[in-house]
Amino acid sequence: xxxxxxxxxxxxxxxxxxxSPENVEEGLDVEEAELxxxxxxxxxxxxxxxxxxxGYYTVVxxxxxxxxxxxIQFRLVHDGAMSASEVISSHRRLYQRGAxxxxxxxxxxxxxxxxxxxxxxxTYYRLGIATEAQAESMRELATQIHADLVGASRVKxxxxx
Length: 161
Hints:
The structure is a single chain. The chain has about 160 residues and is mostly helical. Helices cover about 65% and strands about 0% of the residues. The termini are far apart. About 30% of the residues are buried.
């Protein structure tokens, strides 16, 4: 990149991750990996609600899918079905793992995977334009899944929602 402002910004961004943490985001400064996933999901849901009010439907849909996945990941780690360092890069595989440990049935996991496959990609890559109704329904789905999975855990008091 020839624009020095951009390369300077890239350099500064890299340095910002190398410095000692200051002014960290409240609520996410927990030691347990499962709680980091839980609280990230909480923040994604809060952000989705705010962005929905501002009409940012594409981001609400994206945040809702990620909140669902962080919540499932929280339960996988919490229930000992996944190590904190394990990475599941396939969205479908993550939904399947949730079904395998009984967080929900196989059919529900498959429906989540299909919802992601058919709609998240379409919205994200602008093959379709996000609507308010889609954003609202995705946020509601993410909120309901989060409440159900967190409510059935031993650490529901750690939720920031």
